[in-house]
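Researcher: Here's the sequence for the chain we discussed earlier.
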Amino acid sequence: MAQQKTKKSPGKIKGCFFVSIIMFLVFSLGFFPLVIGLLYLHIILPFDQLWHFFLLPFIIYVGFSVTIIYQILFSGVIIHLFKIKYEPGVYDYNYNDKTSFKWIIICSLYTPIRKIMEIFPVGGTKNVYYRLLGMKIGENTLVGGTIMDPCLTEFGNNCTMGLYACIYGHIHDYEKGLLIMDRIKIGNNCVIDAGAFIMPGAVLEDNVKLAAGAVVTKGQVLENGKRYGGIPAKEIKSTKRKQ
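Model: Thanks. This is the structure I predict for it:
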């Protein structure tokens, strides 16, 4: 056992170092517009008059907003250009496995951006970013909550996903050292209420309504036009009062 750990450690150290370098380069270059803007601002606005300082709050706000948008789009473009995506399957969770390594890179670049988008409203930039990461999003669809694996997630047209809802495309089995991935498909005209959880392999057919706090289990199929709720999600049948 001790010999196996020794053999694996150089690969892990090398992988961690490589991922750290990628993060350093991508997020550092994400500040490029801010640096250029500050240099240009220093030329046209020397701050030698009192009223110049009253502009500072507005300048900081604009600079902060531009930096957030650029960080989001730049990281998305890098992921898209280098085709850092993964496919459904069962993989060994280590740096030597190509798919697991791609997943680790995606997590390293995507997680900080995901947190930023959860805090700050970025409008349509969010859908653009998701599409750069390989997520399919139909027309007139509002994606709230958290998407853990955009490249394994698909939304149809006219869908709504509420706050704190979460869609997982992977299961991380630490005990067995496995990474289990599967696609999630959301049909047209679906509503996912706040706090709902959807697990890998789940399918929501068209016109499905998922209640707040419901849990759609791995591989579960929710049928067309029905309402579901509970843990695990079960059909909610409408009850009509007798007159």
